[in-house]
Every structure is written in structure tokens, then in C-alpha cells.
């Protein structure tokens, strides 16, 4: 067995005190590399093996990456393995470590590194820029309407159907994003169903949906605070809202009772969000048509929504192209549908404000 190089001693010292028997330790749990690139890293574990050949590594999807052990070293009671990971094809896979015990003919495996293979770091950077930019403008999209309601001390011309449906939609979208981003068991089930796919939910999606929920909740509060002029929810809006709330309750109850998988429950929540996205703008567009005016409906919010919708769809397309992972768009129908449908309604509102009712502002 070779002596450990001085360049690797620091790594062992930093992670060694956290090690337990059979547990692989790596400096990072996920990494992004380019197609054809070789990534080198160190894997450490407690040294309780008779020889280094008992430790091996393999890729879950070996057509995406290959992994090779290039060196093994001992330092105290620690075993350090150097490995090289080669990006062979675009996509996402997991590198596993395996310990074989010849004495009882048993082996244990553990997922150690999630690897994403991309075409270009520039495209990866572009997708991040698109994501955080659309997040920013969609966050800002809430405030023009809140400000207009406050400035006018009135919500006349602002559809109550829209804002209440939007609140339910953001609740479902928050549940969906939090589950996909923070719950390991749900993420694991997703990868099992879609091997090599990328998690469609990013951190900006989580922050956006939670912020949207609380911002919309405040607008609902404004409905009760300011002048309404006798304006109420429509009967159709009340029926739809009640149906969606009941559906959401049944979905969550079914998941809690293990009638359906949590992953499926999140998909069903996303479908409720899609229903909300399809229907929520209709009452506002109809109200504008009835009043022959867009007074009460903030055009600033529409402009922000338009920009955010374009960037949201663009981000998903860039990610899918960069990783050859078009299934992630279908794996996140809410995000893609939200962007496309919002964009369509934005065109309608811009036409109402700047063309049809431009003299009635």
C-alpha cells in the first residue's frame, strides 16, 4: 500500500473526525462537469479493510459517466481513494461506492456523488441568470398591484376571483417546490422514475413560490381593507375555488394515509396549479371587458409577468438543451405551463391596456 501524498493529508484531517465505519466521505455531494471532461476527487472512509481492493466505485448510469479508482492511501485509521470521473454523455447520474467483505461474501453500497454532465459552462451560467432574473421580476410583479390598491385605497376593478384562485395556486406550487427541493425521499423517487434526469426545481423556484403565497395573501387582505364598491366573487369563482380546496385536501390526505405516493401527490398539486393558471386570468380579463377599462388592474404587474414568463420558459429550454434532458420539461409541467400560459394572458392584457381601452385609463 502506498503512503498518502502530503497534498491529501489536509483532506483526511478535515473530514476524518466525522467518519463512521462504512461511510464514504467526499468534499462535495454533487458536481457538474463537461462532456469529455475528467473530474478527480478524493473519497475517504474509516480504514477497517484488509486490502484496498475491497473498495470499488461504479456509475449508476455508466453510459453517462465512467469512474476509475486511480490510487489508494492510508493515513492513521483512514483509507483515502482517489477516483477519476469521465463525462461520456449528457445527463445526470450517481457515483456509488461499494465495500466487499470476502469473509461473509457480503457487500454494501452507498451513493456518494451526483454527477451532471453538460455541454457548456456558459449555458449553465445562462440558465442561472435566466432563473434568478425571472425570479426577480416575478417577485416584483406582486408589488405594483399591492401599491396601486394602497394608493387608490380601493380594489374596484381588481378581480376577487383572480386573487383568491391565485392564493390556492401559490399554496400548491409551494408544496410542490418544497417537496421536490427539500425532501430526499421524493427526489429519490423522481430519479428512479426518470433515470439520468435533472431535478426540475431550483432554489429560486422555492423562494418565488413561497414569496408569491404571502404576497398574494396580503392582496386578499387588501380586498377586505379597501373600498370594494359592491364587487364580489362570481358564483363560478366560488364553485371553482371550493372544488380546488377540497381537491387539495383529498390529495394531501391520500398521501398522508399512504394511498398514493408523495411524488404523485406533488404532481397532482402541480395540476391544481395549472388549473389555476389557466383559469385565474379569465375573470380579470372579463372584468376589464365589462368595465371597458383596465383601471384597478396594474399594468406594471403585467409587464413584469411577461418578462418573467419569457425567461422561465427560456431557462427550461437552455437547461434541457445543455444536458440533453428534455424529459425535465415534462417532469415539471407546472413550471413550463406556468410560463407559457402566463405569457399568453399577458398578451391579452397588454392588448386591453394599450389598444382596446387605451382611452379609458
TrEMBL record:
Cell compartment(s), UniProt: Endomembrane system
Catalysis performed (reactions): L-cystine(out) + H(+)(out) = L-cystine(in) + H(+)(in)
Membrane topology of the entry: Multi-pass membrane protein
Molecular function as annotated in GO: L-cystine transmembrane transporter activity
Pfam families per the UniProt record, alphabetical: PQ-loop
Record's keyword annotation contains Transport: yes
Keywords from the named record: Membrane, Repeat, Signal, Transmembrane, Transmembrane helix, Transport
SMART domains: CTNS (SM00679)
Main location: membrane
Superkingdom in the source lineage: Eukaryota
Signal sequence, start to end: 1-22
Keyword Signal (UniProt): yes
GO CC terms of this entry: endomembrane system; vacuolar membrane
Stretches that traverse the bilayer: 122-143, 155-176, 206-226, 238-259, 295-318, 338-357
NCBIfam families: 2A43 (TIGR00951)
Family of the protein in this entry: Belongs to the cystinosin family.
Protein name stated in the entry: Cystinosin
Record organism: Clastoptera arizonana (Arizona spittle bug)
